[in-house]
Amino acid sequence: MSVLVTGGAGYIGSHMVLELLANGEKPVVIDDLSTGFRWAVPDDVPFIHGDIADGHLVERVLRDHKIDSIIHFAARIVVPDSVSDPLGYYLANTMKTRNLLQAAVSTAIPHFIFSSTAAIYGNPATNPVGEDAVPSPMSPYGTSKLMSEIMLRDASLAHGLRYVALRYFNVAGADPFGRAGQSTQGATHLLKVACETALGKRPSISVFGTDYETRDGTCVRDYIHVADLVHAHLLALRHLRSGPQSDNLTLNCGYGEGASVYEVINAVKRVSGRDFTINFADRRPGDPAKIVAGADRIRHLLGWVPNYDDLDTIVAHALSWEANLDERLRTNAA
Ligand SMILES: NC(=O)c1ccc[n+]([C@@H]2O[C@H](COP(=O)([O-])OP(=O)(O)OC[C@H]3O[C@@H](n4cnc5c(N)ncnc54)[C@H](O)[C@@H]3O)[C@@H](O)[C@H]2O)c1
Ligand SMILES: O=c1ccn([C@@H]2O[C@H](COP(=O)(O)OP(=O)(O)O[C@H]3O[C@H](CO)[C@@H](O)[C@H](O)[C@H]3O)[C@@H](O)[C@H]2O)c(=O)[nH]1
User: Fold this and answer.
1) pTM of the predicted model as reported, rounded to 2 decimal places
2) Are residues 267 and 232 in the same domain?
3) How many beta carbons lie within 10 A of that of residue 138, not counting itself?
4) Is there a catalytic annotation at residue 141?
5) What is the pLDDT of residues 48-99, one digit of tens each?
6) Protein residues whose CB sits closer than 6 Å to any atom of ligand 2
């Protein structure tokens, strides 16, 4: 059986495809290339250029490729963009996920793994935040994902689709073997922006808010290496396939450690050996002050053991990818 990876030409999806191939799975990718790259998917992996909301197309792909599991990454992902374009985010993330779920149910797909997010928690009352905390998203992005989780739960109850919803904290880094990384153009993610600045691709970096109630006044996040994250998906897939007794799961994906914006920037300066200019800017809309994963459940239930839970390692891998990215983009455009 094959595994459909939606958004498989994107940052996390492209690492997922490599993880599946390395473990003897047969990935099939559907991607509309809105932010992804065709070259990020190996040539021997079936690639469908299309929209997950196109029910006819998706049902045909599910049947033709004998898919038994869907790993659903395709989405719009930028928290502040969702504040300025909420309806666009509800369309891209919630409504299109509904269509995908409809296609999955119509073709009796048994297993579904969903990319959820720490953003569903908003600004949690306590950190680390566990999966049982009451969700309280503070951005349309977080709400769009929470609504998808609820649809998934209800579709599972009604139709027997079994699922794992993975709530990722801040995903960062790149494939340790240099085969994949974050190639997003005009990226807004802190670690990528800091790497671009260290490498002279940007003149400076802005710190959004220095007056939060955190240890140094800047926002705290739990950064998880993308390789550890995609391995968690492989374990989730095995869990779902392990038999009818395996439950639906909702699991945080993070290390249980927080790093502040300053700490991330300082790590990039330290690892790259380059100093660069920091500007101080206003708080960014939709940003919680601090969010760190309660990370025990995934270790306990899936036996997940991270291999790259060290900020300097994450930074080193991200820097290495970033340093070669322009050449890669040029080669692939030619
Ligand atoms: N990057 C993070 O820190 C982070 C954290 C939490 C959750 N997530 C979730 O992980 C998933 C992947 O994020 P990413 O960082 O790889 O983003 P990305 O933008 O690199 O990847 C998304 C991919 O989906 C594709 N896509 C978007 N809409 C589509 C559609 N309608 N039909 C087909 N393809 C479509 C894009 O072209 C792209 O290749 C998203 O669901 C995101 O919400 C990411
Ligand atoms: O140039 C920058 C970029 C970011 N930040 C700050 O850095 C922190 C992290 O921001 P960012 O890297 O954009 O990530 P988040 O907004 O935390 O969101 C990411 O992490 C979420 C999970 O926590 C995911 O759901 C989202 O898809 C993903 O974009 C925030 O406080 C930002 O204000 C800066 O100060 N300067």
Assistant:
1) 0.98
2) no
3) 18
4) yes
5) 999 999 999 999 999 999 999 999 999 999 999 999 999 999 999 999 999 9
6) 77-79, 117-119, 169-170, 188-190, 193, 205-208, 219, 221, 261, 284, 287, 291
